[in-house]
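Model it.
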Amino acid sequence: MPDMRKESVQRPAQVSLGDVQLDIDRPDAGVQKTYRGERTDNLVGANALPAGAYYIQVKHIDPLGGQILVNGEPLGNTGASWHAEDRIDRTNNSQDFCEAVEIQADGTAYYLRVSYPSNDPFDPSTLES
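Modeled.
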C-alpha cells in the first residue's frame, strides 16, 4: 500500500542576529578595458598578454593560411579560433581570471579580442598599432 502524507502549512523561519550590523560598501564604477583588432605580429615575451583578463580570443583570419601558435600550441587553419574566459570558483567564492597568453604569428593575420578589468595595470590600448 502506498505511503500517503498530507503537507502541512509552511511556517516562516525566525532568525535572531542580536546586535549584528552589516556594513556593505557599494562597488566603484569602472569600465573594462578592451582591445579588438587584426594583427600579424608576435605577442611574445614582454609583449605577451599578461594573466588577469576577463576574456581572450584569437582567431586565424589569414586567407593564405600560415601558422599561429597560442602558448606554443598550433591554432589550426583559417577560421580556427582559441579563447579563454574567467570563471567563478564557487567553492572558494572567488573569480579566476585568464592565464598569460603568448601568440606567435610571424606575419599570419589573426583577429585578437581581449578584455581586462578596469583596475588591472595592463592597458590593452597599448596593443594598437
